[in-house]
Design a protein that fits this description.
It contains no helices and 11 strands. It is an all-beta fold. The strands form 2 sheets. Strands 2, 4, 5, 6, 9, 10 and 11 form a 7-stranded mixed β-sheet that branches. It has a 4-stranded antiparallel β-sheet with strand order 1-3-8-7, with no helix packed on it.
Length: 126
């Protein structure tokens, strides 16, 4: 059974850091493009960062470029999202999602992803 599980969320002060992990079970994440999404209260789910399956190319939304880093840990079957310089606007539920064939033009669109985790809450507040 294919499953994705996020971990690492929590409460952090502005300017702080968190590291989220997305762990796969029942399949190898190496064959999938993995995207991290965020859904803030009252807002649509938005794609933040993606790592491709073919060559581990990475993509970032403008809002997180330079602050967030996505990486793949093959040994642990995990994709991590290192989040630095967190801002209150980064608050939300963070989801990871997987797809085998990534369409680059729409990498930020939730509709193209086949598998989703349950999400982990990130709260940035003083």
């Amino acid at each position: 059974q294919f499953q994705l599980q996020e971990s690492g969320g929590g409460l952090v002060h502005p300017g702080g850091s968190l590291r989220l992990s997305c762990t796969g079970s029942g399949f190898s994440l190496d064959y999938y493009a993995i995207n991290w999404f965020r859904q803030a209260p009252g807002k649509e789910r938005e794609g933040l960062s993606c790592i491709s399956a073919s060559d581990d190319s990475t993509y970032y939304a403008d809002s997180v470029q330079g602050r967030f880093t996505i990486s793949r840990d093959t040994a642990k079957n995990t994709v991590n999202l290192q989040m630095n310089k967190l801002e209150p606007e980064d608050t939300g539920v963070y989801y990871c999602a997987a797809v085998t064939a990534l369409a680059l033009q729409t990498w930020r669109q939730p509709s193209q992803y086949d598998y989703w985790g349950q999400g982990t809450q990130v709260t940035v507040s003083s």
